[in-house]
Amino acid sequence: MTFRTAQQDAPPSLVPPPVAGAASLILPGLGQVLARQLQRGLTLLGSLITIIALLAWRVSLLAPRETGVFAKLGKAVSRRPVFVIPVLLGLAALWLWSAWDAYQQAQPQKQHGIGLFALVILLLFVLGWQTSQIDMYKFVTQISDARGALTRVAWPWSAAVTRDTETVGAGADILSPCDDDPPPPIPEATPGEPYLAADPTCGDLATRDENLEEVPGTTLHIVGRNFDPHTETQLWWVDPIGNEFRMRKGGEYISFLTGDGGEFEMDVNMPYRIIPPSSEGRQIHRIEARQTSEVGPLKPSAALRNNVERMVETIVLGMMATFFGILFSIPVSFLAAKNLMSVSPLTLTIYYVTRTILNIVRSIEPMIWVLLAVMVVGLGPFAGVIALTIHSIAALGKLYSEAIESIDPGQIEAVEATGATRLQTIAYAVVPQMIPPFVSFSIYRWDINVRMSTIIGLVGGGGIGFLLIQYIRLLDYRSAGIAVWFIAITVAILDYVSAEIRERFV
Question: What is the Cα 194 distance to its own chain's centre?
């Protein structure tokens, strides 16, 4: 697709159209440069180099063991024909189209086509899709596996409150392995108290064969009475050194409801357990049936309290970083304002040095700054304050300096005409014009710092982000969901508050 425009003021081409086309056939973009379309030519050349580099990288990953360009290319085509072949054809089409475009650009009546750049965007998109390893089939087919976790994150409030718990139970001793001495006796029942008996009271634990397959242990017949009726009951195993864990059957935790009279009866196998050599004497294990019930009023859970504390820490972290950022960026902004620093070669040099430093510091993300700060002051919110302060100084220094550069020079000239000094000129002509944008930028930066403080916590910068990553690593998605909700609510409130402040003062 092309469209024609009259280029009456455009400089004529340095070469005839056929020469321009041939030049771009040799080196894409060269013909456009010779046709005095420098930006167009360099864009095409840079795009082509980027596409070739990305394709070469992907081909090398698809054929890492092959040597030689054609061997690697052949292997890549055999492995991913749907990706490699269309990109190669598109690359060839782009190369030829570049020559035709150079021919058109060298004509007196130039034609500016957008189809060529549409092809560039399409090729970059295809390479980006492959590089990003986007797999929509995997996304669609596996999203159901994550539905449970996502549901707990989206609605986590059942974990925000809790009650005190009360556990009742009974147990029976089991000897393993059996020896010549009498095994532990079957416990005697106490009227009205939960009771558990196991038969036999000695046996062998589960073992593993040469294929690491589990060989079941001795089967125990379990009888329980006098438990709470129709209540969930769990079986636990306690080894001789005091370690306890829930028993499994068929890979699932053993959990059941008691009968009308609080009774139950079942068979279970003794579990697999490694007893350390330091454990001496007869190895007496214990099997227990436990019922846990909630008692007392609802109260905030530990997850809710931790999230509230960390959210407050996050807000304060962003506030302190904004305060220090404003404090240090204001003097820096005057050094980075060209209209104030152009009075002499020395001040102009200071301006360029300051601007360069601000650009470098601002280009480094707070996530990187917090990693450096952690090496100095350790994990915690102080590292986050340092990281956000450094980035805020660079960002606000740039914004403030641009606000200073855009002030009305007429007011400065009027104050200077009265014979005011440089300091008086800044105080009475520059500062009054700076206050509205400074307030706006400062509030905006506070908003950014609070948002960023939730992220830098992921790498040890304190705040709620640090807690969030711990919950995710522990697969505690409900507690992680509380943190996500707190972040969303806090950011929404801060956005409303900052908008109100901006409306009143700006």
Answer: 50
> What's the CA gap between 398 and 360, in Å, rounded?
11
Two structure tokens written together for 437: 């944008």
Last residue of a domain, one of 280, 299, 318: 299
Asked whether residue 500 is assigned to any structural domain, the reply reads yes
User: Which CATH number goes with the domain that contains 495?
Assistant: 1.10.3720.10
User: In this structure, are 206 and 191 located in the same domain?
Assistant: yes
Report pTM: 0.69
Name the H helices within 378-430.
Answer: 381-405, 409-417, 422-425
Domain limits at 404? 302-505
Residues 6+ apart with CB under 8 A from 250: none
Render each residue's pLDDT in the chain as its tens digit; 506 residues: 444 444 445 678 888 989 999 999 999 989 889 988 888 899 999 999 999 999 999 999 888 888 888 898 899 899 889 889 999 999 999 999 999 989 988 888 776 778 888 999 999 999 988 888 888 888 888 888 888 888 888 888 888 888 888 899 999 999 988 888 889 998 888 888 999 999 999 999 998 888 888 889 999 999 999 999 999 999 999 988 888 999 988 888 999 999 998 999 999 999 987 776 666 778 899 999 999 888 888 889 888 999 999 888 888 888 899 999 999 998 898 888 888 788 788 888 999 999 999 999 988 888 899 889 889 888 888 988 999 999 999 999 999 888 888 888 788 788 888 888 878 887 888 778 888 888 888 888 888 888 888 888 777 777 888 888 888 888 889 999 999 999 889 888 888 887 777 777 66
